[in-house]
Design brief:
This protein has twelve helices and ten strands. By secondary structure, it is of the alpha/beta class. α1 packs parallel to α10 and α1 runs antiparallel to α11. The strands form two sheets. The chain has a six-stranded antiparallel sheet with strand order 5-6-7-8-10-9. It starts with a helix and ends with a helix.
Length: 289
């Protein structure tokens, strides 16, 4: 607890220091994005769960009839992003309506960005979308995978790429993605994964941090007092969105973030979320240096 408080004080002290930065290396980030492939399969709820399923995510609005929670072994119920009742009843798995069903469902997903964001934070390295329908192919689980892959395949705009190259060639400071990766993977139990088709870091298989391409920010854990202080004290570096406003997290503009400050923030998040044995392992490693 004392170490966490000292980290908070360190971050707040750095917050008041003068320092400007520009863009991080977009080339490093885009290379990481190319590796962050979605690994999602589908499975009917009435098939036996298996260890290879990864995180089992129910993508139906209704719970599978006749199954208990113990039998279904669902890790997350993505009810908020399932097709609306009206759309589900209209479709009724009529193959002739498949294309129109996808168009309408994708429109619902576009209008529910927050729900999609939450879903993607539950994906982990591998996941299985669980559904109840007897229809194995033309169902909402496969439609959802198609939607997520289409979204993750969208490249950054030419303007963003140009800005990134210009900033790097000008020699301006910023935290490059390679530095973020090195920083994150130094923590015990941390591994690389994907969230929403973007590079992410998982702590013992659970979501820890990710790059939000849409907002051009790195999502990092930050408890409320510290988060609010960072947002108020350094809005050019730290920001939030409507989705993250009620979460213990802050978005960091890598273009403007001092590396020492980001390192302290990552450590504070690690200590808040890691198991005691992981924290002890980290302290032991650092004391040996």
């Amino acid at each position: 607890a004392r170490r966490g408080e000292s980290l908070d004080r360190k971050i707040l002290a750095i917050r008041d220091a003068a320092g400007s930065a520009a863009c991080a290396s977009q080339a490093h980030l885009m290379a990481a994005r190319a590796k962050a492939k979605l690994s999602i399969r589908t499975k009917r709820a009435y098939e036996a769960p298996a260890t290879g399923d990864g995180r089992r995510i129910l993508v139906d609005r209704l719970w599978p009839r006749g199954l208990t929670k113990q039998q279904a072994r669902i890790d997350y119920w993505a009810r908020a992003i399932s097709p609306s009742d009206a759309l589900r009843k209209w479709y009724e798995h009529d193959a002739t309506k498949w294309d129109e069903f996808k168009r309408r469902y994708f429109a619902e997903l576009d209008a529910n960005a927050a729900g999609v964001e939450v879903l993607c934070e539950h994906l982990g390295v591998a996941a299985t979308f669980v559904f109840g329908s007897r229809e194995q192919k033309l169902n909402n689980a496969n439609a959802l995978i198609e939607y997520l892959k289409a979204r993750s395949a969208k490249p950054a705009s030419a303007a963003k790429m140009t800005a990134g190259r210009s900033a790097v060639s000008a020699g301006k400071r910023g935290v490059a993605w390679a530095a973020v990766r090195k920083l994150a993977l130094a923590f015990p139990g941390m591994s690389e994964g994907a969230s929403y088709g973007e590079p992410a870091f998982l702590l013992d298989g659970k979501f820890f941090s990710r790059f939000n391409e849409q907002e051009q920010g790195l999502v990092v854990h930050a408890e409320e007092p510290l988060r609010d202080a960072l947002l108020a004290g350094k809005p050019d570096v730290y920001f939030t969105t409507d989705h993250y406003r009620n979460y213990p997290a802050v978005l960091v503009r890598l273009a403007c973030a001092p590396r020492a400050e980001l390192a302290a923030l990552y450590e504070a998040g690690f200590r808040a979320r890691a198991k005691k044995k992981r924290v002890a392992e980290f302290d032991t490693q650092r004391n040996r240096k």
